[in-house]
Amino acid sequence: MSTHDNSNETVITSYAHAPARTITAGGVTYAYRELGPKGGVPVVFFVHLAATLDNWDPRIIDPIAKHHHVITFDNRGVGASSGEVPDSVEAMADDAVTFIKALGFDKVDIFAFSLGGMIAQALVVKHPGLVRKLILTGTGPKGGKDIDKVVRITYYDILRATLTRSDPKEFLFFNRDTAGKLAAKAFVRRLEERTMDRDAKIKLTALRTQLKAIKNWGRGTPDDLSKITQPTLIGNGDNDRMVPSVLSEDLHRRIKDSELVIYRGSGHGGIFQFHDEFAPVAVEFLAR
């Protein structure tokens, strides 16, 4: 259990040095990291497909952790968290609630990317009282057009990356133009900044189950997003091949008073390519 008295401890604001912790709830041991000043409403980060704790861009996390208690965690069955990966986004949302409540929080802000954004939507629809503010990036709504094609694109890009000995995220997250390729390499390098206590990589069976959950989400009956009354910030690139950019616009239309930031000339990882622009926007949004 984490305490909220930080009078004697140095506040860590660098994700590279965030301590690795675990907490057990509902028969699952969740691996998580935390940093930033304790107290106030924490910002819980919901990670993307195939991702572990090591997949968060420190250039997004660190600026937020300057003034906020930041928590990242591995979904059930992923990385260092125990158990089996659920085959539905809704079950992943239930796990996230279990994890958040186990830490003793009854109100959180959520920063979500891609699959994490789907989990965040499912969570806020079912547990609206738990969420104060919502940041949805590189994601789309349940029943969103072409989300079920993620599976094919993912396998195709994993193959392309294998043939070129590069990281699949370079293909999946970034445009294959000069700016995109440079941004991709820089992003992958940033993910290597943490050298100690790195997380276990996701297993192929876990990835397959996550893809199945995304496919079902894409083919599911849309949720009534007009129920979302939380301040919501939506971000993406204008050329998202994984979760089509039009779905960010769709979310913006359906979530009342939401704000939309689209970065031109970037893909699924637009917020990472333009981290120097997006991080201050996110910080300002959370501070309001």
Q: How would you describe the shape?
A: globular
Helix content: 25-40%
CATH topology: Rossmann fold
**Global structural class:** alpha/beta
CATH architecture: 3-Layer(aba) Sandwich
Q: What is the CATH domain class? A: Alpha Beta
> What is the helix/strand order?
EEEHEHEHEHHHHEHEHH
Average pLDDT over all residues: 96
Content of β-strand: 15-25%
Low-confidence runs: none
Describe the model.
This protein is an alpha/beta fold and 288 residues long. It has one domain (15-287): Rossmann fold (3-Layer(aba) Sandwich), CATH 3.40.50. It has 10 helices and 8 strands. The protein has an 8-stranded mixed sheet with strand order 1-2-4-3-5-6-7-8, sandwiched between helices. Helix 1 links the parallel strand 3 and strand 4 (70-73). Helix 1 (58-65) packs parallel to helix 10 (275-287) and helix 2 (89-102) crosses helix 3 (115-126). The protein starts with 19 loop residues before the first strand and ends with a helix. The model has no long low-confidence stretch (mean pLDDT 96).
